[in-house]
Specification:
The chain is mostly helical and 161 residues long. It is built from 6 helices and no strands. The longest helix has 23 residues. Bound molecules: zinc ion.
């Protein structure tokens, strides 16, 4: 089944985890609790598609009202919303806010590869950024497998250290 508009949740997942593991391995910032950080990166990346009925999280009936109000690839798929949510979380815990922003942003970057694109800079600029990787297509599957392998490799490396 081809869903043109959406990268699959699992692709977002492996991509965000990949970026997060690279961040851990670079060791340039001292993150107090890496496991909790990773968890919030994952929450950040999964939550963006709450505006889509077809997504992993959007299927949850509880979120239907959000989908009535916000169209898919609308405001939830903007840097502005990501920053707003992250700031709210930062209010409780700075690092978790950063982790959430990290996951959210990585989702938006990934969606930029799909033809449907995203209005990243709304409301400053209403244009869509999008490229030709069709969701659920062969290229996405290849990206998924490569990222999954990279994730496993990085986890293996981290366990060795
Ligand atoms: Zn999305």
């Amino acid at each position: 089944m081809l869903k043109r508009g959406n990268m699959l949740t699992r692709t977002h997942f492996v991509f965000s985890v990949f970026l997060c593991l690279v961040l851990f391995l670079l060791n340039v910032v001292a993150i107090p609790n890496e496991l909790l950080f990773l968890l919030f990166v994952i929450i950040g990346t999964v939550i963006v598609d709450i505006d889509s009925r077809k997504s992993f999280i959007g299927k949850i009936i509880l979120f239907r009202p959000i989908q009535w109000v916000f169209s898919h690839r609308g405001m939830f798929h903007t840097i502005l919303f990501g920053v707003l949510f992250s700031l709210i979380i930062s209010f409780f815990d700075k690092w978790l806010g950063i982790a959430f922003a990290f996951g959210y942003l990585s989702h938006l970057i990934m969606d930029c590869f799909t033809p449907a694109g995203v209005r990243l800079f709304w409301p400053l600029w209403d244009g869509k950024i999008g490229f030709g990787v069709r969701s659920g297509g062969l290229i996405e599957e290849i990206m998924f497998v490569l990222l999954l392998l990279a994730d496993l490799f990085l986890v293996y490396r981290m366990l060795l250290i």
